[in-house]
Amino acid sequence: MRERVLRAASELGYRPNLIARSLTTRRTGMVGVAVGSLANHLYPGMLQALAAHLQAVGYRILLFTAPLDGNADPELEQVMSYQVDALVLAATTVSSGLADQCRAAGIPVVLFNRTSDTTAASSVTGANRDGGEEIARLFASAGHRRPAFIAGDPNASTSRDREQGFREGCAALGMPVPIVEVGGFSDDGARRAMTALLQRQERPDAVFCASDQMGLIAMDVARFGFGLKVPQDVSVAGFDDAPPASWPTYGLTTYVQPILPMVEAAVSMILEQLADPTAPQRRVVLPGRLIVRTSCRLPSDPESQP
To answer: What pLDDT is attached to residue 24?
Structure first.
């Protein structure tokens, strides 16, 4: 009987209507995923891992882009009209009002690589402050005394936390307060920020960038725009461990974002809250690790290396 039904469905070109089914189950099997920009080398791998993990538990992703530095509410409200079962927001934020609406409607909201003041959304991030502190420790142990920081979006928790960790690390090690320029997590912004730093009368001898994307641009500006040697004239470090950071052309020192554990945590939060809409929101911070490559000078004493 089953074979006859399947054969008849094939002959008639029948396909299950998931939209109609959702009217009964009140679930579409879709998870909305917002990213600020696919130009960030970190996100393609994250999206692939997230799609695979969600597919393994019966969900598909609906991808859309949202403003990097603005209120994403208008875009999110439009996505909600597709009756998504949950929202994952990477590199964008949501207002507390919309987050409350989502929670009231039983739609879990998970911030990925961001945090927010709202109590209606869960979040999962890497250890941003710890990473900033470790990079400060690496710079200090290599004898650097003129640190600088290229910030991302000043409103982004990731950039603020990385800067805070870097500042605190520099202060604890007796280094000067870092010079700060804003790169906005963009290529053009990073180029302007690194140019401004290297045009200073007393230019920095070590630059920590809030993302690998900006770190790669900073290295190019130093080498090809100013004829400097990296790391002999200036050390450069990033954050994320995006794939190009390991290319021999760059060899960018960076602090690893634990993407796979972060994806697993995000999916776990979604399933937990779908099963029980009253489940408390969670904030998860997962440890990373420092990878020292050729873009940074090494400590003269190997035992002092982080």
So the answer is: 45
User: Locate tokens 């396909």: which residue?
Assistant: 15
Q: What is the dihedral of CA 77, 82, 88, 93, to 10 degrees?
A: -10
- pTM, entire model: 0.85
Answer yes or no: same fold for 2-125+259-286 and 128-257+290-304.
Answer: yes
Q: Identify the DSSP state of 32.
A: E
What would the 3-class secondary structure string for 172-238 be? HCCCCCCEEEECCCCHHHHHHHHHHHHCCCCCCCEEEECCHHHHHHHHHHHHHHCCCCCCCCCEEEE
The CATH class, in words, for 128-257+290-304 is alpha beta
The 8-class DSSP code of residue 34 comes to E
pLDDT at 11 over 90: no
Q: Are 288 and 126 in contact (CB under 8 A)?
A: yes
Question: Could you identify the residue written with the tokens 């995000």?
Answer: 266
Sheet containing strand 86-90, edge to edge, reads: 60-65, 30-35, 86-90, 109-112, 122-126, 283-286
Task: Give CA–CA dist 304/294, Å, rounded.
Answer: 17
9 pLDDT band, cuts 50/70/90, is low
Helical packing angle, 73-80 and 96-104, nearest 10°: 20
**Phi and psi torsions of 32, nearest 5°:** -75, 130
